[in-house]
Amino acid sequence: MEKIRCGWSEKDDLYKKYHDEEWGKPVYDDETIFEFLILESFQAGLSWYTILNKRENFRKAFDHFNYKKIAKYSEAKIEELMQNPGIIRNRLKILATINNAQKFMEVQKEFGSFSKYIWDFVGGKPVDNKPKTLKDIPATTEISDSLAKDLKKRGFKFMGSTVVYAHMQATGMVNDHVENCFIR
What we know:
2 strands, single chain, Endonuclease III, domain 1, metal-binding, 9 helices, two-stranded parallel sheet, EC 3.2.2.20, mainly alpha
């Protein structure tokens, strides 16, 4: 019997695998949280499918999302990234990634981990929105508005409420699997 999934994930096997194995599963380790922050910031204005297809290229280009290395990227590394056809070659987003790696470590210093900081916005456990259909899933919420505002205040770039909400979905801070999805 075919599994029933959230409708957005039916495009192909890459999307199905991402939906089944990652999307909406709570993530508490800083390394994975950072990876999704970067991927989501690059997605701004593009489709998640585009980013997912380039994920391995991003992983290689950005030192496996090692924020300590990324925070120290030189102008030469930025130029190398700008020449890499396997990623999204947007200078502002590349610069934002370096900036966000630096800000990420500042938050770690203040809170002990970025995970503790970000999960405090949902009281440490996933918010279950119980959407019946895809139409019931919001693009932003009061929580994503608040988190985006706080990230901006801390100097993060490309972290508007829509990007932040997508990050919350990806890392399981919210459960937006529709009612008839087998994962629910």
